[in-house]
Amino acid sequence: MRIYVAGCGGMLGEAVHKVLAEHHTLKCTDIDLNAPWLELCDFRDYAAYKASVESFAPEVLIHLGAHTDLEYCELNPDDAYRTNTLSVEHAATLAQAHGIPLVYISTAGIFDGQKLLYDDWDQPNPLGVYARSKYLGEHIVEKRVAKHFIFRAGWMMGGGPAKDKKFIAKMMKQLAAGAKVLNVVDDKLGTPTYTVDFARNINAMLGTEYYGLYNMVCGGETGRYEVAKELVDVLGLSDTVEVKAVNSDFFSKEYFAQRPPSERLVNYKLDLRGLNGMQDWKIALRQYIRDYYREYVAPFAPNYTP
Ligand SMILES: NC(=O)c1ccc[n+]([C@@H]2O[C@H](COP(=O)([O-])OP(=O)(O)OC[C@H]3O[C@@H](n4cnc5c(N)ncnc54)[C@H](OP(=O)(O)O)[C@@H]3O)[C@@H](O)[C@H]2O)c1
User: What rounded mean pLDDT belongs to the chain?
Assistant: First the structure.
């Protein structure tokens, strides 16, 4: 298939490009041209987005990019809604005009955390600008595009040292700087989501006509504290690095955007369809470190064995 991927320069885009390029002909664009396979397109600019998509004549449009920094979104709501919501309207218009499927990536962060575990049919209640901007994107896609896939991801693990902006990279940076204590919240529950598994499951779903909305996260129920403990353990650092439990107040200045106490998802619909290819998060974490961080960890984790 000919597949256009918009906003493909980030953590998830790296894996989507790698996995889909093995099976399809791709055009990948972004505003950040950090790889030779990326072309320039700012999807906030409808005319530019339309020209870029139409010159490629894709059979599928994947609208991948977004502003994913919650604090940035709180401080810059206009840009957050332009980027994360209005640009989805652009994608919806283009997909519907050409009668092609649209793939949109949403987030577990659209829930308010009053439940411990959310399936695909639970009612979202977004707490902040980022979450609201992404949830509005879901509505647009559902209302305006007949053939659509909405895939909800959890805590993304992917991209390696060059592209990972999230939790694993933040832990790795502290360890690389010689930290012997990692302060980690024990009051935030969620589900890690390995970008490579996520991209593979997108590819599998593209081969079906099971359009709709799907939770798509790794297996297992966990939280930030357990993920950090597991990371330290995998790296062979349990004897030298302490993972210290703190509550979210500890980081209230740095991470001032509201986050749900639980954003754990279960892939109920994928399970029912027999199409849940997502691995357990502990297995995925080990693969992520082996495939992306092996050289990076060598100087500070001499006992690490892939
Ligand atoms: N990261 C997570 O934990 C997570 C969890 C659930 C869902 N998601 C969703 O997954 C998708 C991919 O996220 P990610 O983690 O891969 O984020 P990412 O690493 O920040 O990548 C997003 C990419 O989109 C680009 N972008 C931003 N504005 C753009 C614009 N106007 N036009 C074109 N490209 C633009 C970004 O460029 P700049 O870097 O220059 O801004 C970046 O290269 C997003 O839709 C996100 O909401 C992410």
Answer: 98
